[in-house]
Amino acid sequence: MNFLDKDNVISQITLAILLKAGKGTPVHKNRPTHGLAYNVNHTCIYKFDNGKALEVKSGDCIYLPKTSNYTVIKCETNSNSTVYAINFNLVSEEIFEPQLFHTRGKNEFEALFNKASNAWLNKNVGFYDECFSDLYRIIKLLKKENSSYFQQATILNKLAPALKYINENFTQENIKLAHLAQICNVSEPYLRRLFHSAFSTSPALYIRNMRINYAKELIKSREYSITEIAIISGFCDVSYFSREFKKNTGMTPKDYAESNQ
To answer: Where are the beta strands (DSSP E) in 120-167?
Structure first.
């Protein structure tokens, strides 16, 4: 079971800190607490005693379980390299697997870790409660991003047959929505919703954009005429191709060709 799969209750925070490059212990044996570490601007590889290795890059957050044994076997650092860490205990004695998170809201994560470390360092009135609040907010944000990631992965998995078919046939035929829905085993309206969730566009525009992008590459190659490019990239005639190309790029195919000479 992963750390984020449960609504864990934090019983104690033992440390919230900002570490500079070269600081900290590279070898950890029987880690006394759970921990979350956020890499601001460097890369480290954590190798655990079970052979599992996690490469933590800039903007990544790693969960380190209590009782774990690991070694930081590689670090790419510079004089400005920093990592935030918050160590804590849970009411539950359950032990989880190490887990890596590729965060998207990097500014928000860094701000929360920074806020907690400053509160711990200054120890003003209420600092402990502030650190608790910040840690819970970090965990909530990780859960939110993790849920969004798996939702996106599920959508792409459902669309996989359609995307494969489009990639193989977008220049050769007029691809029908009904056929894409059939090979994905979903209804046409649901297929449209899946495309919009994954790519913020319709299946028809997704296919058109693929054709336009392919046409751009053909234009840059200077090996074909505009008429030939229209046919090769899957458009039915030159006039329609020119209209769609300008709608997408703001330029006619001829103007695009001249701008890329």
So the answer is: none
What does the block give as tokens for 248? 């997408």
Percent of the chain with pLDDT over 90: 61
CA-closest candidate to residue 12, choices 96, 75, 91, 76: 91
Total count of residues recorded for the chain = 261
Reduced to 3 states (helix: H, G, I; strand: E, B; else coil), residue 9 is: coil
- Summarised one tens digit per residue, pLDDT across range 157-208 is 889 999 999 999 998 878 999 999 999 999 999 999 989 888 889 999 999 9
- Strand segments (E) across 80-162: 82-90, 99-102
Q: What is the DSSP letter of 8?
A: -
CA 132, 138, 140, 142 dihedral sign is negative
Strand order from edge to edge, sheet including 99-102: 10-20, 82-90, 34-39, 60-64, 99-102
Please, which residues have CB within 8 angstroms of residue 84's CB and are 6 or more apart in sequence?
Answer: 16, 17, 18, 19, 37, 38, 40, 110, 113, 114, 116, 117
